[in-house]
Structure formats: structure tokens, C-alpha cells
């Protein structure tokens, strides 16, 4: 069974990296993330230099974590929101359009393995992106000392956030034959789950608490501070599981839709 | 080997396949014949486990498709119509993927891939990207993926559609070579294909089986009688009336007018009658001019057309 999953996974990767889109997305992401990092770091060093010269050192208590990494992590999360739908859009939509889905379903593999391989394939591309974005952080570590642990927490959070994005995108890709539709809808849904928190100030406080707990970025907040909270871990795990399950149901619906 | 019992498939209330039952024995090559949209592909997809039937049971090698889908799928090699393939992969990479997913053992994987490439004549294009191959080669890749795990059952949906005559011949030879003790179902709407390759024919129309037999029996059963082609110089209406008045003529039609007063006719004669003498006698007696007379036994094509049109009449 595992070797079948591995075969599917290898196929996903081969197809990803046989097309320019994977390279384009990885380099664009790394470039944008790096640009933001440079900008934020530059601003931070200017501010801290000025506060050192102003004889009011105690006024400036901004650590590198709060001054550089937290805002940068949020930036990266937002860039991911824009880019991830482009990675997941082809997952099932392309197979449907090309008709390869028909063959895929006559192979002796379970739907569970098919969905898992789609997820893992896209996730591998995402990890390559994230590894690229890590390079300016490593460079900064050489030139200045900062505590690695909370930054690592932030990265773990990004990995979970990315996993949630990918699972949702894979699910939506299974609903349509059109990659563009898949990308746009994925983006819209992610955006909605992202900003749903804003509604919490205008509705009943009890409902508002629920809404802000649904928000996908809210659960990233403690990660960005380097804190790994079980509640947030559970949120992402449940989120991924729900959309994995829904993807399976969508595949199964071919049985009555034909 | 394959058993269908009262199988139906409905899409939104419309039955694409209706109460179909048939059996295929091991080693048989079955031709699935029918016009486009008759339900051939739907029936094949149910056998391959692409989707389950709405009603009835499908069994392959003793396994029920709804209960043991994976077991059934392991027995089957399937080539869908239009042969959907991953266009980005090379032939060798694609076959490697298929070998993995079909559970070919690691030790035998390499030799299995070499064997199917040899068998389907793909060895020289092993490194080529599938998207750049010609239609004929893609068809071969489709066949190669179907046979890589040496399945007991092969299901080929329109294996020769869209190929040029030379490629059609090659693919037919390949299919012929694959028989051995494999059970093969192939669908087509091209009749010669069936008479060339198949042991038995199942004719399907509007989701129903309307005939199943071997090729020569089918021809015999439905070609009770013969057909006469005539070219006669005679008043049309009068001639047709005279012809229809013979006992043993099942139909007499004018085909077209060649010159003024000269028509060609097609006359179907029932089994056990040979009216050639009577007809020429009648023509001589009326002083008409007989320019051509040719007798023809019905071909599979005629049988097929008859079956399909007969069914249409019933439906109406």
C-alpha cells in the first residue's frame, strides 16, 4: 500500500517539476519574502540606531523577534495566501480535464492514498519555498545574535498554516475542472476564513468569540511569538482533517454523478 | 471470468445502461458493438470499477466490484477512449508510475517495464515526453500501461479510434498477440474490427443488449435470405409493385435513378427463396431491360444496421 502511495507521490512531484510553474512560484515567493525581510530588517536597524543615539534607551524595548520576525511572519503568511492557490489549483482539476482521473480511478489504489499523495506533492513544493525563504534568516543569524527557538516556532506555525492552505486548495480543486476557478475560489475562501475575525466586533460577543476562533490567522498569532499552543495545534489538525475528509467525499461522489 | 447480472446505470433518472446481463469466459475476446452513446463506455466503466452500477452485480474473477473494488481492479487492465495520459512525463517514467501504482513487485518492475515496451514497440521512444508523441504511439502507451501487471482481463474502449489505417492494423496485431489466456473486451463502432479480432459479439443499443453471439452465427441468424441489387429499365412504380407481389420478397426499394427510366433497386429476399429466375423472367415478359443483377449475402454491417434500426422501431 505504501509503495503505491509513494508511486503517486513521485508522479506528483515529477509533473510539478516538469512544468515551469513550480519554479516560477518558488522563485517569486523567495524573492518577495526576501524583499520584505530586507525592508523590515533595514527599518528595524534604523529605528534601533536612532533610539541608541537619543539617550532614551529604556524607551526602546523592541526585540528582534517583535521588530523583525513577527511582522515578517505575517507578511509571509499573506504572501502564502496569494501563492498557495496557484500550487493546489491543478491537483484534481487538471486530472479531470485531461481525463486521467478516469484511469486513476481504475487503478487498484484507495482514494485516501490519492488525496494524501496530492497533498504531499503540493506540500513538498511548499517546503521548498519555505526553505528558500529561510536563507535571509540564516544570513542574519551569522551577522547578529538572536534567539533561534521562537523563530523556529514561527516557522513551525507557517508549516501548519501552509498545510491547512494546501488541504483546502486540494479539496476545492476536486470540485471543478477549471484550474483558474479552483485558484480563485480557494483564494476567496482562504481570504474569508482569514478575515472572518473582523466580524466579531460587530456581532454578539458570544458569536464573535466563535468567529475569531474560526479565523485561520488568529491561530497563527502565538506561533509568531514563538509560543506553541495545543489549542492552535488542534485547530490546524482539525482543519486539515476536515478538508481531507471532504476531499474523499468529493472523490466518492463520482459514484453517483458519473 | 466477467459476469454482469441485471446491471443498470442511471444518471439523473436517465438509464444509460438498462438491465444488462452477460458472461465472458476466460480467454474469450468479446466485441462490444453499438452506435455512439449506446452505453458501451458506461458498461466498461462499471466493469473497471470506475463507478459502481446503480443496480445489479458486476463480478470479475469471482470478486464483486462494489465489495472488493481493489481486488477487481488488480485483475484489470483498462484503456479508456482517447487514452488519457500524463503528458508531462516521459514514456519510461509513466510506465514506472503505473508499475508502482499497480503493485508490481520491486524485483520484477524493471523487467516488466522492458517487456511491455518491447511488446508494444515503445523501446525506441522510452525517453520521449508523452505529450509530444503521435496518436499512434500514445495508443501504444495506453496499451502498455494496461498490460504492465499482466492482468487477466483487458478492457479496451475504442482502441483504434482516430488512428490511420496503418496504425489501426498495428494495434489490431498487438491486441491479437495479447490474447493467450487473457479475457479481452473491446468496444468499437467499426464493424470490420469485430469480425477480425473477436470471438463473440455483444450488440448494444440504447443501453440494452440486443444480440450476442459469435460473428458467423450472428451473420447467419440475421442474414436469413439475401439481397439482390438490380439495374432495370422499367417504369418504377410498376416494377416495384411486381417485385413486391412475389412470395419471398421481404422488401423492394428503389435506390437511385441512373438515367431517365433506368433505376437501381435493392430487393431483400427471405431465407429459402431464390427468386433470380422468376425476376428475370418477369422482366423479360414485360419487355423491360435488365442491365445488372447481383446477389449479396448480408454482411455484419447489415446485421448491425438491422438490429439497431429494429430496436428503434420497437422503441417508437
Description:
With 258 residues, chain A is mostly helical. Chain A has helices at residues 2-18, 20-53, 64-88, 90-98, 100-104, 111-143, 148-173, 179-195, 205-214, 221-224, 230-252, 254-257. Chain A has one domain (2-257). Chain A is built from 12 helices and no strands. Chain A is globular. By secondary structure, chain B is of the alpha/beta class. Chain B has 2 domains: 2-221, P-loop containing nucleotide triphosphate hydrolases (Rossmann fold, 3-Layer(aba) Sandwich); 224-297, Alpha-Beta Plaits, CATH 3.30.70. In chain B, 38% of the residues lie in helices and 31% in strands. A 6-stranded mixed sheet of chain B has the order 6-7-8-3-9-10, with helices on both faces. The A-B interface holds A 3-4, 6-8, 10-11, 14-15, 18-19, 98-103, 105-110, 254-255, 257-258 and B 9, 11, 16, 42, 45, 48-52, 70-71, 73-74, 76, 78, 80, 82, 84-89, 93, 96-103, 106, 129, 145.
Anisotropy-based shape of chain A: globular
Provide the CATH architecture of the largest domain in chain B.
3-Layer(aba) Sandwich
Quaternary organisation of the protein chains = heterodimer
Number of domains of chain B: 2
Q: What count of helical segments of chain A does DSSP give? A: 12
Outline type of chain B: elongated
Mean of pLDDT of chain A: 89
Largest interface, with Cβ-Cβ < 8 Å? Answer: A-B, 27 and 36 residues
Rounded mean pLDDT of chain B is 85
**What is the helical fraction of chain B, as a range of percent?**
25-40%
Rg calculated over all Cα atoms of chain A:
21 Å
Overall SS class of chain B: alpha/beta
Alpha plus pi helix count of chain B: 11
* Helix content class of chain A: over 70%
- CATH third-tier fold name of the largest domain in chain B: Rossmann fold
Total E-strand runs of chain A: 0
